Write a sequence for this structure.
């Protein structure tokens, strides 16, 4: 992933984000492989998450007053919120409502369908 800084203003940064494929020419998948799913038959979460960091070139805007970054490609945007928890850094993606999507028989499917955010925590290890 390559992030390029564009314009800088008092409260906002903008730029370009390029999400490139790996050496094998493929992008990673958002697959759930916990029971009852497996590597051979995973829960495919790509439709719910791929837009967060879409393949190819996107535009981004970081609002320095709210710590929110909007990533936009083809008029579809995702929002990432930066935060801290002690010495750790938090990256939260707000997910669009999927309440209208059909439910499935699995607890995990329905939990996934009703999720409202995806977050990563980066832990500081050592000095």
């Amino acid at each position: 992933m390559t992030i390029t800084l564009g314009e800088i203003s008092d409260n906002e940064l903008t730029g370009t984000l390029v999400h490139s494929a790996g050496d094998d020419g493929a992008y990673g998948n958002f697959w759930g492989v916990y029971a009852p799913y497996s590597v051979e038959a995973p829960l495919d979460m790509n439709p719910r998450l791929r837009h967060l960091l879409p393949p190819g070139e996107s535009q981004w805007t970081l609002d320095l007053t709210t710590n929110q970054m909007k990533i936009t490609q083809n008029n579809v945007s995702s929002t990432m919120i930066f935060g801290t928890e002690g010495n750790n850094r938090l990256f939260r993606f707000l997910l669009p409502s999927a309440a209208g999507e059909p439910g499935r028989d699995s607890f995990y499917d329905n939990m996934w369908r009703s999720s409202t955010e995806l977050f990563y925590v980066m832990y500081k290890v050592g000095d």
Residues 14 and 56 are 17 Å apart (CA to CA). The chain is about 10% helix and 45% strand. The longest strand covers residues 76-85. The first helix runs from residue 46 to 49.
